[in-house]
Amino acid sequence: MTDDQIRAEQTLVAWARIEAWLREHTPRTFQRLPAPATEDELCSLEQELDLTVPADVRAFYLVRNGTGPASDFDWPTSHDDPEPTGYFLPDGEGIGPVENLGTWFEGPVAAARLDDEPGQRYLPITTIDPDGFYGSFVDCTPGQGYGLLGNYAEAGFPNPGEATFAAYLTEVANALCEGRGFGGGSAPHVIDGCLDWQ
After folding, report:
1. How do the domains of the chain map onto residue ranges?
2. Which CATH class is domain 3-196?
3. Of 31, 52, 63, 165, most Cβ neighbours within 10 A?
């Protein structure tokens, strides 16, 4: 197997464990998981942003188009919708739908990129709010850091990391299944059928 195939498989295994946990313990969160994105949507995103989505991220999106319905990641959120449940990952983050990633790429992530590195390709993937001003990105720049996660904030420089998306989801799955905190944070809690790490 290639490294890409290994990462894709790790993602699928980790996400299956997360979904099994959600189905059993947090039915409201599980029920609001979206349908998969399509290969055409991912190819359009790649063309629009001039990047290649890493295999582990692609594998996730071909199972679920984010961690909640698109309405959870849009401003303004509708008062008719149930309370957003898509931000159930540690630190209150959620994985945005494919259709939001282009907006986040051109907005907060573009503002956070170094002007003297126009070739950088950081694809935002998680956020804590519909604006996408704070969250994590996957490095889609060809070369050594390709496929690694990092953090960004509207008013700061991007902070590259050392873990892949597959490794991140594996650690989330481990923390859920073991009932422990993630990265030194609080253990997962269930509130009204929803997952909360706060």
Report:
1. 3-196
2. alpha beta
3. 165
